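Notes, p. 3: input format for complexes.
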Amino acid sequence: MSKGALALLIHGGSENWSPPRWRERFRSVCGDRRVALLPGDAIDPVDVRYAAVWKPAPGALAAFPNLRVIFNLGAGVDALVADRSLPKVPLVRVAIGDLTKRMTEYVVLHVLMHHRQQLYLLDCQRQRRWQPRAQWPAREIRVGIMGLGTLGLDAAAVLAGLGFRVAGWSATAKRIEGIDSYHGGDGLEPFLKRTSILVCLLPLTPQTRHIINRRTLSMLDCTGPLGAPVLINAGRGGLQDEADILACLNDGTLGAATLDVFEAEPLPADSPLWQHPNVIVTPHNAADTDPEEISKYVAAQIARFEAGGELENVVDLSRGY
Ligand code: NDP
Ligand code: OXD
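Output follows (321 residues plus NDP):
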């Protein structure tokens, strides 16, 4: 009996993430299973059992009557969950060491960038000025991580290992050695009030949309050595109100920001964030994962599922992440 086919529906991405490259990779890890890149490759929709997708057109997955599992080729599923015609089959997201470690690199890089006053030092370099400022130790900086899931937990542990005082905020209560944990609506204000570098690694859901706004930024701690607090958002652009962030940067409520994600991507050329002296903009590449690792992860999940095993990292659609 022939194996159920895998359909690839992939939009956007750099050359390494291009649809033909994904087809090549999946063909090399899927043995004799048919792999069809859509639209384009000929395949009868009734033969499709699995779909591996990145930003598919809304409604596109409803075309496969025998679909058994959808694999999202990234960690965040907000765009898929918003598709009301999404077939009612398990939706699996990426949670693998390669992605997690790359996100941790990004978070650590940017926490250190602000903690070690690198924006100031780069400015001095451009002006040929040799003017070091006093540097405080990591233990005087309180980092707060919104989202203590796969990504937030790893970043928290590495930052704590560097000596930062780390806290996290999540939906449900956690007990994690060395990390102060806050949760739920009641935990948000005390969490923000003790935080001077805020790292956002939340999923985008109706509950978290625009959670980074003037009200929440105004609660951050400005008594530490940094003076004004710092924001690092690598979750999703929909988590932030960009007009509020700009206004807070301009009136000193916020000292600086690193942003990897934006309300509109690519960030429009006329956004003031591009040129702001206290903003670091990166092009949604915080965890630019190795696609080979992702295709092997999907192929292994399909093999386990067909052998009667459990799928891993299935999204809870009622929570939206
Ligand atoms: P997880 O699902 O593992 O973790 C999500 C965390 O957010 C959990 O701790 C969860 O709490 C918490 N959370 C969710 N909703 C709320 C809420 N309303 N209030 C408080 N806490 C909440 O996700 P990951 O760590 O794997 O990924 C997080 C996000 O990072 C992704 O959804 C994606 O948007 C983004 N991302 C960005 C990338 C980039 O390149 N910029 C790359 C990869 C991911 P609890 O533990 O209690 O459930
Ligand atoms: C993801 C991303 O969700 O890259 O994996 O944003």
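The pocket of NDP (ligand 1) is lined by residues 74-76, 95, 103, 147-152, 169-172, 201-205, 207-208, 234-236, 260-261, 284, 286-287, 321 (CB under 6 Å).
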